[in-house]
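Example record

The entry below shows one chain as it appears in the dataset: sequence first, then structure tokens.
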Amino acid sequence: MAAKTEPSISELVGKVISDAQRLAMAQLALAKDEIGKAGSRIGAGAALAIAALSLISLATVFLLIALAYGLVQLGLQIWLGFLIVALLLILGAVITGLIARKKILEVRAGTMTTIDELSKTASALGATDPESPGI
């Protein structure tokens, strides 16, 4: 009978590393394929969303003109009806802008917290640069 030799530890470690690399490459290829397919679907959806937004924008313009003429029918002069509609639009833009500013500042504050935590982690690990390859 021939003696069966066991593989050495270094051979086993090498095989594990090789298998892990192949697994990582296969997962990366799968992710690229899935993202590519999802990207084309997202592109088609985005194009349809842009078309819908264009149509709703045109409808909004017509509704605003109708509102201005409705104010004229209530007895206001034409210029005053359109001025009131314009002021309502400006008021809406200001309110929306303030809400957007608040949301952006909230995101910025959250990002700063993340950066601070990353710096603390890097200093705890002994790295001087958070982007150094040691992390």
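Notes for this example: The chain has two domains: 10-75, 78-135. The chain has a mean pLDDT of 85.
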